[in-house]
Specification:
By secondary structure, the protein is an alpha/beta fold. It is built from twelve helices and 20 strands. Bound molecules: nicotinamide-adenine-dinucleotide. It comes from Alectoria fallacina.
C-alpha cells in the first residue's frame, strides 16, 4: 500500500501528501496478525481436545518421546501412532554467519527494524523474491544474486519468470543471474559479498547493509533422536516414507517439509489429513499434481500443474494459450495491466496440464485452475464457462479459449 500510495494513487485521482513509512507500526500490525493466527490454532486445539505440550521432543523408544518442556522439566509421552511434522530450516550459506540482523533468513527479513539502504538477496527463488519485493517497495535498493539463468526457482514457467523479472525490474529491483556468491564478510559495518559469473568470469564485490540468504530450505530433524530408533534420512535430509506416509516403523508417519515434495503449508495440510485417514480408515489421497504454488510478490505469481520445460522433457505434445491482463477490462480500469494468464493443454485431448499466472490477484485466481486440474477439465470446459464481466477472472477464461484459438478480446 505504501508503494501504491507513493506511485499510483495520484493518477487514480487521489492526492495524498506527507506520506511517511512508520515501520514500527507496520511491524506491530504484522505481529498482531501473526499472534491472532497462531492463537487461533491454539484455540482450535482446545476446541478439538488436542493437548498442546510446549517443548522439544526426542524419540526415547519406538512408541515414546521425551519432551524437554519450555517451562522447565521433562515429560515422557507414549503413542500408538506418532506423526513427525517438524518442518524445515533455512539452508545456511557457507562462510556467512546468520545473525538475523545484518545477515538474515526469512525469519529476520520479516522483522527488520529499519529499511536497509542496500539489500542483497542470495537466491532468486520464492523467499528471495517475496522478501526482496517487500523491502524494495518499502524503499530499499534490492539486488538479487541468482545462480541459475532464471528467477523463481525450478517450478516457475520460463516465460512467466521472464515476465515477472521485467515487472520487478520496473519497480526497481536489480538481478544478477547466472552469478554465484563466492564468499561474504560481515565483520565490518555492513556486509561485503564477492560474486562472479557462474561459468567463471571477473569477480566483483557487492556492498549491502543487509544480506538475505534464501538459497533453499532443508528438512529440520536435528535433536529428534532419530538415531535412537533407527530412522534414516536421505541425502537431502528428508525422512524416508512410503505412499502411506509411513517410515520403516509403520506406526511412525511423516508429513510436510521434513519429507518429500514441495515445502508448502497447504501441501502439509493435505498430507496431515491423508495420513490420519490412512490410520483411521486405511486409505487417504493427495493429488500432488494439483498443489498450487503462489509467490506473494506484488504482483503475485501463481501456478499449478506442469510448465512447458517439464512437458518438453517428458516428450508430451502440448498447446499453449495465453492472455495478457492489458486486454482485460477490470485490469484496465484498476490500472493494473501487467502480467498474463497462460494455459498449457494436451495437444490431442485438450486436457489442462498446467496453468501459470503473473498479475493482479494471481494467488486467488489459481484456485479455479486447481479445481479444473483436480476435475480433469479440458481448456474448452473452462473456455465455455461463464465468467462475470468485468472481472480479472475473464482473463483466465480467455487464456483457456486461446489454447484453441478462440480468445475474443485479444
Ligand atoms: P527456492 O528453492 O525456492 O530458491 C532458492 C534459489 O536459490 C534457487 O533459485 C537457486 O538456484 C538459488 N541458489 C541456490 N544456491 C545459490 C547460491 N549459492 N548463489 C545464488 N543462488 C543460489 O528456496 P527458497 O526461496 O529459499 O525457499 C525455500 C522453500 O520454502 C521453497 O521450497 C519454497 O517453495 C518454500 N516457501 C514457499 C513460500 C510460498 O509458497 N509463498 C514462501 C516461503 C517459502
Amino acid at each position: 500500500m505504501y508503494h501504491q500510495i507513493l506511485h499510483d494513487t495520484k493518477k487514480r485521482g487521489i492526492d495524498v501528501s506527507d506520506v511517511k513509512l512508520n515501520l514500527k507500526q507496520m511491524m506491530a500490525a504484522k505481529n498482531t496478525s501473526v499472534d491472532g493466527l497462531t492463537k487461533g490454532v491454539e484455540f482450535l486445539f482446545k476446541k478439538n481436545k488436542v493437548e498442546y505440550i510446549k517443548g522439544s521432543a526426542a524419540f526415547s523408544g519406538e512408541n515414546e518421546v521425551k519432551v524437554n518442556l519450555i517451562d522447565g522439566g521433562e515429560q515422557t509421552l507414549r503413542g500408538k501412532n506418532i506423526f513427525i511434522a517438524t518442518g524445515s530450516e533455512a539452508t545456511p550459506f557457507p562462510g556467512l554467519t546468520i545473525d538475523e540482523k545484518k545477515v538474515v533468513t526469512s525469519t529476520g527479513a520479516i522483522a527488520l527494524e529499519s529499511v536497509p539502504k542496500k539489500m542483497v538477496v542470495i537466491g532468486g527463488g520464492i523467499i528471495g523474491l517475496e522478501m526482496g519485493s517487500v523491502w524494495s517497495r518499502l524503499g530499499s535498493e534490492v539486488t538479487v544474486v541468482e545462480f541459475l539463468g532464471q528467477i523463481g526457482g525450478p517450478g516457475m514457467d520460463a516465460e512467466i519468470s521472464k515476465t515477472t523479472k521485467k515487472i520487478l525490474e520496473k519497480q526497481g529491483m536489480k538481478f544478477k543471474l547466472g552469478t554465484k556468491v563466492l564468499k561474504g564478510d560481515s565483520s565490518g559495518e555492513g556486509v561485503k559479498l564477492e560474486v562472479e559469473a557462474a561459468k567463471g568470469g571477473k569477480a566483483e564485490t557487492l556492498d549491502a547493509d543487509v544480506v538475505l540468504v534464501a538459497i533453499g530450505r532443508r528438512p529440520y530433524t536435528a535433536g529428534l533422536g532419530l538415531e535412537n530408533i533407527g530412522l534414516e534420512v536421505d541425502n537431502k535430509g528428508r525422512l524416508i516414507i512410503d505412499e502411506q506416509y509411513r517410515t520403516k516403523l509403520p506406526h511412525i508417519r511423516v508429513i510436510g517439509d521434513c519429507t518429500f515434495g514441495p515445502m508448502l503449508a497447504h501441501k502439509a495440510e493435505e498430507e496431515g489429513v491423508a495420513a490420519v485417514e490412512f490410520v483411521k480408515k486405511g486409505y487417504g489421497h493427495v493429488n500432488y499434481n494439483a498443489i498450487p504454488s503462489v509467490m506473494y510478490t506484488h504482483p503475485e505469481v501463481a501456478w499449478v500443474g506442469q510448465n512447458e520445460a517439464e512437458l518438453k522433457e517428458q516428450g508430451v505434445k502440448y498447446k499453449v494459450g495465453s492472455f495478457p491482463f492489458s486486454a482485460n477490462s477490470r485490469a484496465k480500469t484498476n490500472l493494473e495491466t501487467e502480467g498474463m494468464v497462460k494455459f498449457v493443454a494436451d495437444a490431442e485431448t485438450d486436457r489442462i496440464l498446467g496453468i501459470h499466472i503473473v498479475g493482479p490477484n494471481a494467488g486467488e485466481m489459481i484456485a479455479e485452475g486447481v479445481l479444473a486440474i483436480e476435475y480433469g477439465a479440458s481448456s474448452e470446459d473452462v473456455g465455455r464457462t461463464s465468467h462475470a464481466h468485468p472481472t480479472l477472472a475473464e482473463a483466465f477464461k480467455e487464456a483457456a479459449m486461446a489454447t484453441y484459438g478462440k480468445a475474443i478480446h485479444y
